[in-house]
Amino acid sequence: TLESMGFALEVHPTAVGDFRDDGEVVAAYYDEMRDLVKRASGASRVFVFDHTIRESGNTNLNAAAGGAAAPVPRVHCDYTHDGAPRRLLQLGDAGIFSHLKGRDLSADEVAALAAGRFAFINVWRSIDADRPVARNPLAVCDENSIDDDDKFLYELRFPDRTGENYSLKHSDAHAWYYYPDMTADECLVFKVFDKKPDGPRFVFHTAFDDPRTTDASPPRKSIEIRTIAFYDDKP
């Protein structure tokens, strides 16, 4: 579960017909993912703020609307201890929490959200309705197997901001998991930051070369959704 391991496989069919249609994804899929993350996490409010389509064989790191980026074969976690609160405030400045009260929130109101417990939670799924994932699946690491000294920080430079990710030094102690042959009706839900200090907080993940993959294996086609969840309990 999310509370015990920081990740969970959920069966969750979708009504979306075309994931390359950004309008349909935002209008329909965001609502589906909001409900899924609320149920899986126990959060009282969930906001979806971003998504990325990825397809193996591509080499571009980013993609325009309707396009696909390459999978990321790099062990990482999307946020750091200090970077996650900064990202929450940036999203507040961008107005994504406006529908809470039907208006943009003030800086004080966003700061009040940041003072409580919040978590960044991602949802990853295949968008190939005909074939299970056989190439470049996603693996996740049990945080209980990671020593704090294994983590190191690196920066991501964007035109409008600088983000921070964690990566890991290699250790044979790390326990990695993946779900083989995931179908389009399954979702991998995982935390990339939780303000709650006890329990899993940072789920490291990466695409990888499955040794079962053959030349005939179809390309991976996937979507990842990024959400922020707010809880009624204090961190």
Describe this structure in words.
The chain has one domain (7-230): Sandwich (Jelly Rolls). It contains 3 helices and 10 strands; from the N terminus they run βαβααββββββββ. The strands form 3 sheets. It has a 5-stranded antiparallel β-sheet with strand order 1-8-3-10-2. Strands 7-4-9 form a 3-stranded antiparallel β-sheet, with no helix packed on it. It is α+β, with helices and mostly antiparallel strands and 235 residues long. It has helices at residues 22-41, 83-93, 107-115; strands spanning 7-11, 45-55, 118-126, 138-141, 151-157, 162-168, 176-178, 186-194, 205-207, 221-230.
Summarize model confidence as the mean pLDDT: 90
Low-confidence stretches: none
Shape: globular
Helix content: 10-25%
> For the terminal residues, how far apart are their CA atoms?
19 Å
What's the total count of β strands?
10
Structural class: alpha+beta
**Sequence of strands across the biggest β-sheet:** 1-8-3-10-2
The number of domains is 1
Key features of this structure:
10 strands; 17% helix; five-stranded antiparallel β-sheet; 3 helices; alpha+beta; three-stranded antiparallel β-sheet; Jelly Rolls
Sum this structure up briefly.
With 235 residues, the protein is α+β, with helices and mostly antiparallel strands. Helix content is 17%, strand content 29%. The chain is built from 3 helices and 10 strands.
